[in-house]
Automatic annotation (TrEMBL):
Localization (cell): Cell membrane
Name of the featured protein: Odorant receptor 21
One Pfam family named in its UniProt record: 7tm_6
Molecular function as annotated in GO: odorant binding; olfactory receptor activity
Keywords: Cell membrane, Membrane, Olfaction, Receptor, Sensory transduction, Transducer, Transmembrane, Transmembrane helix
Broad class of where this protein is predominantly found: membrane
Membrane topology: Multi-pass membrane protein
Signal peptide location: none
Origin organism lineage: Eukaryota, Metazoa, Ecdysozoa, Arthropoda, Hexapoda
Amino acid sequence: LVEERTAHLRPDLSNGISRRRCRGDKDTRETLYQKWNQAKDLVYSRLIRSCSRHHRFVHRYAEQLTATYKLVMVLFVAVNFLLDVGFSCMVVDNEHPITSAVWFGCLLMSAPVLLLVCCSGEYYTDINGRYRTALYETKWYERSVDVQKFVLLQFAVTNFERRMSVAPGIYLSRAFFASLVK
């Protein structure tokens, strides 16, 4: 993307006229390439900063969404499970105790909602990993010192291990769903 946005700024030294003009003047060629590299770094810096702002916005949105709906989703799964058990009790003869098959059936009815919640928590965790990988793969270490400082600051400050938690020490993920099913 940086190459596309700075292609028009690249000095054209491929034709004979420009080479003849610049052949004796090495400083002119170096100046043209320095200007092109500076423009490229400026575009790169703007793109990195906009990606960083976007990532912070996504994090804030996900945290607000989690803070608002975490309790609602947990209660929804719990109430859904209890309603399934109650409905099963009404359908099954009241004189017989509830068998494990009824509990298993109720869990199967509640499982899709719980899986959806756990997958959203996993996706929230994956956002951080994808951002960290994309940030590192941009070859930031080949850029100007300002860009390097900004990217290193991002690596130092950003918490890439953020996860969506239901309670202290309990994080929503596919592993959490698998442990609940077991």
